[in-house]
Amino acid sequence: MDLNIIYGYIVVFTLQALGATSQCPDNRNCVCRGTYIECDCNINGQSVIIDTLPGVYMNVKCENITTINYSKLPQCVDHIGTLKSVSFKNCPLPSTSFKDVLTTLGVSRTTALIFQNERNFTHNFYRRHFKGLQDLTKLLLSLNGVIHLPEEVFMDLSNLKWLNIRMKSIKISEELLQPLQHLETLEINQNYLTTISKKIFTPLKFLKKFSLWQTNISNLSKEFFEGLKVLEELDLSSNSLSELPASIFNPLTNLKKLTLFSNNFVVLPKNLLRRNKELTTLIILNNNAKIKELPKLFLGNLSSLEQVHIQWCGIEFVANDTFFYSPLLTNISLAHNNIKNLPESLFNDQINLLELDLSFNNLKSLEAKLFSSLRSLERLNLCCNSISEISGSIFSPLLSLMYLNMENNKLKFISSNMFENSKRNMWISFALNELNFENKIVVNNSWRINVDSPFLYTYNLKLLNLSHNQFKQVFTDWWVNGHEKVDIRFNSIKNLWDIAENGMLQNNERSIKTPTKEVLVDNKNLICGCQNFWFLDFVQTHWKTKVANVDFKHCSLWSYRVCYMKLYIMISTIIIFTVMAVVVIFMYFIYKQKFNKILKRICSNLFRHAFYKKEDSKIVVKYSIFDEEFVLQEIIPGLKDYDNAKIIMKPVMTHKNNLLKKMKSQNHIEITLVIFSPNYLMTTYSQVNIKKIRGEMLKAKNTVYVFVDIGPDNSIYAFLKEKRDPEMSILWNEQNFWGKVMDFSSRDFQNRKKELKSDTDNQKNALVRKLEKVKFSSKKSFMRLSDWPHFETFETFAHSQV
């Protein structure tokens, strides 16, 4: 069937081409070409192209010609007869009537004449040029030049209904348009009107369309449109108008469309349109000055008004009665202005409104009942404002809404019941906001964050665009409510499906009949986890959902393969454990006796470890009172991370009674951490021989010396620091300081556990003997101990043994 139609078209075009070729003129100066009749003629060395479609049009194109003898033009088609239009492009003005030229070309009658010349045109039109064209109904004169039109030039065009004059500069007299009594459309565009009479258009009683687009007029008198009672369309665009008389449009009682594009209005009169009861469309766009405020009732009481477009006008304030008693409005656009607030009752009477555009303004909030009367509204555009919060019920009255654009605002949260009454097949966009869907509520005098989807009750959306926001969670309804496309790109999403809802996915797999058809996701923040891999495969395989822009290229190949090797890994693990169990049982029967001994030894060690674990362990931090600030800020915070150890701080302030402390029984594990600084040395060993000090340090058990350079310079401290034993001391500024402290402590605890029971009695007996010796020795002999002159010696000894 399709091939037959194609063959038919080929036959028709072939016949047309053959017919057109047979009608080519027998003229050696012309060449016939093209599907239709196109003659390329050379008239006295000048190129003229004549393109003709019989019964429809003829186009005569001249190339680089300033003068031409039109009588030598050929007839491209015999007996052309009547054509709908004839046009001359870049051709010189004929010296005779256009009627004579058309006769030469074989055209007996035409209803439309177009004369265009883009070059600098200096000739003038006269009455003779249009003589004999009584049947002409349309005339277009588009010339690049300063042209003079005599008063009688259109005297023979009494049936003309459409006139378009485009000239660089023109002067129009009062008598010029008087012969055109039947003119219905007048377009004087792209002209520089030097003078214009007040009542020049009064004779045009049947004029319906009037355009003065780009004519450089700066003011109009209030009588300018008198007599144009049937005028329906008026265009005053691209002029220099800064004000209008309040009554200028009063004579236009039948006006239906008014266009005021690109002027310099600052203020519009209050009652400018009060007499234009038939007005249906008002367009005020791209005003070069700021109007700032529309007058009260500016568009009120216009019972026929249907469309209003006021854009790029700098409007900041709109009164609440602007549209009062204009109930037939179907389209309102106040886009690209500076509106900051809209009154709640602004659209109260607009029950028939279908489209509302408030985009590109400075709106920060919307009144809760702003759209309460718009039951028929289908399209609402609020993009590119500064809206940060909207009421949860603001869109509830919009029962017919099909398109909602809230892009590029500052919204962070949307109420979960916002779209409860929404229709199917909607187009919704909240892109380029700050949405995180986190709602803070007060529960029991404390803040709680609720995360809910505001689109739970929307089904079969054409588009749900949530791209370029800040939310982290994907809601179930975005996948299962039958939407055609959901865009959630450029957010902080880590998981494509809520892990807590896995059960719901498996249980309701069969009940989900209309999953989303396409979801756009970027994989910038997606976790390379099995949850995402499995879910993505599930929706693409079972739901046939297209998930675009997700390729997991940022994930390693191993992380992807592991997820699909889980079953094999589980089976392999079971087999390995089974084999190991069989081997253990087999070995048990072979080495039964040895196995019992090993088991007893392990249980014994475990019991002993549990016993010692219950014992108290202590870390005693001994330091000079002058170093207390350093110990509290640096040492104690580090020791708090030591598990199962009690920290005891013992600052050294006096040299007395230290020996007696050794007599206390110790039934616990204890190590001493000595903060050995110049201050500690002066406080504890101020008059003790350096050899004795070093000897006691070497004899010390369960003691770790930490050398810290705090206090005045001391040569004895420097010597001891240099000759220190690395097995029992550490420098504060060493790397991995706390790791080494933990190693010392663990080693000392183990040694202490082994020696705890046997050493306790021996230490007690040794201390008693020493105390008895001190008690019964004479004072003189005590003082003779030159190397041990004071009681600090016993304190030091006791300290080294703690």
UniProtKB/TrEMBL annotation:
Leader sequence segment: 1-22
UniProt entry keywords in alphabetical sequence: Membrane, Signal, Transmembrane, Transmembrane helix
Keyword Nucleotide-binding attributed: no
InterPro entries: Dev_Immune_Receptor, Leu-rich_rpt, Leu-rich_rpt_typical-subtyp
SMART domains hit by this protein: LRR_BAC, LRR_TYP
TM region positions: 567-591
One cellular-component annotation, GO: extracellular space
Protein name, as recorded: (apollo) hypothetical protein
